[in-house]
Amino acid sequence: MTFGLSRLAQVSVRANQVDRATDFYERALGMKKLFSAPGMSFFDAGGVRLMVTVPDGPGLANASSVLYFAVDDIQAAHAALVARGVVFKKAPHVVAKLPAHDLWLAFFDDSEGNLLALSSEVKR
């Protein structure tokens, strides 16, 4: 079977003030808040995680969203995409140690300069 991306794990939206945005998504929109971390909040958007965060890094201040593709094996997915010529900004790495799993990410740009990422929740 040929490897291909299909299921979104997370979408990121930019916020100038995370506390204000968290209040809006939670109170005004009635979304279920999953958890918070410094500078970001996470919500359940029908099984897709919505991350509200202050842009972190050059070129991200005007970005409207980041597509995070869920993969079971981030190392294998990374290798398959690298073999197809995809250039990653950084190798897959742990970004959060949560109670039941570690969250791994690996970022890359599409052909138009849009930021995309692989996302994998690795159970301990």
Provide the fold topology.
Elements: E1 8-14, H1 18-28, E2 32-37, E3 40-45, E4 48-53, E5 65-70, H2 74-83, E6 93-97, E7 101-109, E8 115-123
Parallel strand pairs: 1-4, 5-8
Antiparallel strand pairs: 1-5, 2-3, 3-4, 6-7, 7-8
Which range does the strand content fall in? 35-45%
Find the CATH topology: 2,3-Dihydroxybiphenyl 1,2-Dioxygenase, domain 1
Instruction: Name the CATH class.
Output: Alpha Beta
SSE ordering: EHEEEEHEEE
How many helical elements? 2
Helix fraction by DSSP (H/I, runs of at least 4): 10-25%
Low-confidence stretches: none
Largest sheet report = 8 strands, mixed
Order of strands in the sheet with most strands: 2-3-4-1-5-8-7-6
Q: What distance separates the N and C termini? A: 27 Å
Shape: globular
CATH architecture: Roll
Number of domains: 1
Explain what this protein looks like in three dimensions.
By secondary structure, the protein is an alpha+beta fold. The chain has a single domain (8-123), classed as 2,3-Dihydroxybiphenyl 1,2-Dioxygenase, domain 1, CATH 3.10.180.10. 17% of the residues lie in helices and 44% in strands. The protein has helices at residues 18-28, 74-83; strands at 8-14, 32-37, 40-45, 48-53, 65-70, 93-97, 101-109, 115-123. It has an 8-stranded mixed beta sheet, covered by helices on one side. Strand 3 (40-45) and strand 4 form a beta hairpin. The longest helix has 11 residues, at 18-28. The model has no long low-confidence stretch (mean pLDDT 88).
